[in-house]
Amino acid sequence: MKNSKLTIVGGGSTYTLGILMSLIEESNQFPLSQIILYDTDESRQEKIGKASKILLKEHYSSLEKFDYTTNQAVAFKDADIIFVQIRTGGLLMREKDEQIPIKHGVVGQETCGPGGMAYGLRSISDMIQLVKDIRSINKDAWILNYTNPAAIVGLALDKAFPDDYKLLNICDMPIAIMKTYADILNEDIWNLDADYFGLNHFGWFTKIKNKTGHDYTSELKNYIRNNEFNPTDKLIANDPSWQSTFKQAKQMLEDFDEYLPNTYLQYYLYPNELSRKENINNTRARQVINGRERNVFEDCDTIIKQNNTNNIDISGDIHGIYMIRIAASLIYHLREKFIVMTRNNGIIPNLPKDALVEIPALIGKYGIEPLQVGEIPTFYKGLLENQYAYEKLVVEAYFENDYNKLLQALVLNRTVVDTNKAKGILKDLSDANREYWPQFLE
Ligand code: NAD
Ligand code: G6P
Ligand code: MN
Questions:
Q1: How far apart are CA 84 and CA 386, in angstroms?
Q2: Distance (Å, rounded) from C-alpha 399 to C-alpha 263?
Q3: Nearest ligand atom owner, CA of 238
């Protein structure tokens, strides 16, 4: 089979260099002939593009073509596969998404709670337009979307493009948690076999085995109850915010010992404690602006100046490798098992059919072949139905320009609940987002 042509949309993202390093590390399993970076922000794209060119020249000798562009025709025309990682409004709007709820005593988070709702309403327009633009130029490329908040974006895309089986929504959190499991167990991560159910950033591992069938679930639970649970993937291992997030798993497991939780459940299960921990002047967005973003762009300056990557500390990470392994499984019809998002349709029979569930599936040339989960117990069903109702109302509010549905959504969200609080937050978020969702201005 011929080598593939890849385009990365959001080429100016803080994740691009890591993805390129991951592509280099995975080049035997997923060989490429072409990589094109595309972004709407010319200056971000140029900096990452110039550095990428040097990096690829050094480390990817079999690559025939590399380019970076703000031209969609150039970016989309020949691609076999398109990774998407855009951020409408940038990190400065993320900071507002996080600060406004905190002002009202509510968790301020990129994808959970009111911040996620605000980000979702911004992302949906751009993502629908982007998929239309891609499909007007290229009908066949696989589109692998990382853009957040993936739960809401994915649901909106499912509504807008219900038959496009070549459009997949993916999250790196389950695999990042599995990376820690693998390191605890001294197993190769790709030798682990996970059973999982939920919505994006709202789910549980029900079983962790290895591929020869050894069940590690109890061992992992015991480990987490009795030891420090830390992130181990390079991208997040040394980040204090991620370290404190992983630590919360112990509390969750002590309180609810049935399944192994996704780290994002902390915001829904302990909203008061979590909101008290937040610092409005140093939310996660600010940490990323002063950390990952600054480091990536400084690295680019250095690479461009010295015209090589000597002494630059970049490597592949599970975020990139996950996307690449899924891409390889699609293109080579490997039917390997990955946790992805897909329309429920009875996979979990006691949840709504149209929910976008996150579950294990086989990935091959027909796209996603979901594996049956079965009915789930009442506690989880209740939490998920509530969260799905919130997500669905946000998406309906977007398509119907219905402010009242946004209010209903926030009242349902476990991080908010109180109607007066919800009204205040919604008003402030609408003001802050007038450029992005003017339809909701009263
Ligand atoms: P970032 O702001 O550094 O990068 C996003 C890039 O997208 C920017 O260069 C921006 O100019 C570009 N962009 C914005 N709108 C665009 C459009 N319409 N078309 C093309 N390019 C556009 O953000 P980041 O922190 O690197 O994150 C990128 C995205 O990936 C975010 O949505 C983030 O939430 C998401 N993400 C998702 C997961 C997951 O688990 N699904 C994991 C990590 C990051
Ligand atoms: C995880 C999640 C992503 C999220 C990211 C935020 O990878 O799966 O959905 O975007 O964390 O990380 P950050 O370091 O930007 O807070
Ligand atoms: Mn995610």
A1: 29
A2: 30
A3: 2
d(Cα 100, Cα 279) in Å, to the nearest integer?
12
The alpha carbon dihedral of 148, 151, 157, 160 has a sign of: negative
CA 279 to chain centre: 24
A 10 A CB-CB count for 239 gives 17
b/e burial code for range 284-316 (CB count within 10 A of at least 16 → b): bbbbbbeebbeebbebbeebeeeeebeebebeb
Element (H, E) at 206: strand 202-210
CA distance 335 to 368: 9
d(CA 119, CA 86) in angstroms, rounded, equals 11
Ligand 3: centre distance to CA 317 (Å): 15
**Ligand 1 centroid, distance to 224 Cα (angstroms):** 32
Predicted TM-score (pTM) of this structure: 0.98
- Residue 259: is it exposed, middle or buried by C-beta count within 10 angstroms (0-12/13-18/19+)? buried
pLDDT along the chain (442 residues), means of 10: 95 98 97 98 98 98 98 98 98 98 98 98 98 98 98 98 98 98 98 98 98 98 97 95 97 98 98 95 98 98 98 96 98 98 98 98 98 98 98 97 97 98 97 90 62
* Summary count for the chain: helices (H), strands (E): 17, 12
In 216-238, which positions are buried (b, 16+ CB within 10 angstroms) versus exposed (e)?
A: bbeebbebbeeeebbbbbbbbbe
Q: How many CA atoms lie within 13 A of 399 on its CB side?
A: 14
**Element spanning 8, H or E:** strand 4-9
Q: Which residues of 21-47 are buried (b: 16+ CB within 10 A; e: fewer)?
A: bbbbbbbeebbbebbbbbbbeeebbbb
CA distance 245 to 223: 17
148 lines ligand 2 (CB under 6 A): yes
Mutation pick for ligand 2 pocket among 173, 263, 318 (CB with most ligand atoms within 8 Å)? 173
Angstrom distance (rounded) from CA 55 to CA 20: 9
Identity at 102, one-letter amino acid code: I
Of the candidates 256, 244, 261, 284, the residue with the CA atom closest to the CA atom of residue 174: 261
